[in-house]
Amino acid sequence: TLDKPQSAPDIDWAKVNAGQTGFYRVNYAKEEWSNLQKAIEAKLLPATDRLGLQNDAYALMRSGFLPATVFLSLARSYKGEDSMPVWGDLAANLRGLESLLIDQPIFTQYQRFAGSIFDRIVNKVGWEPVAESGHLDALLRGIVLGQKGNYGDPKVIAEAQTRFASY
Q: What is the pTM of this model?
């Protein structure tokens, strides 16, 4: 199935396996991955497809069918993401890649890069729930604050230590 909304004529992309209903991975040409990044950034795809794209890219990278640079470029396009399931899966995949790089000279650079992906969402969810927040908001808060702390963000670590000490 191809999914290309009529509302985005200036972005040339097509998403295979719309709705993630098939049990297979989809690999695109490099320029198609780039076009899909733009669709992710503009939120022209539903959350299920945004999740599926990064998950396919990660699996293809892990199996040697896609360069890590393509996955990392795609991951950067999720900076404006707001869906908890998408963040949860992306966080797990970034941590999976981190475990492969832990003994490599680029590990510190990778941590800075991966941490930067979470900047906007950490500022959005904050440390305290708001009145209308629900279960998914609490899960999202835990995921993104945990990731930022794991990647060494001094503000998140300091706040976590303060909260732990007062607890």
A: 0.88
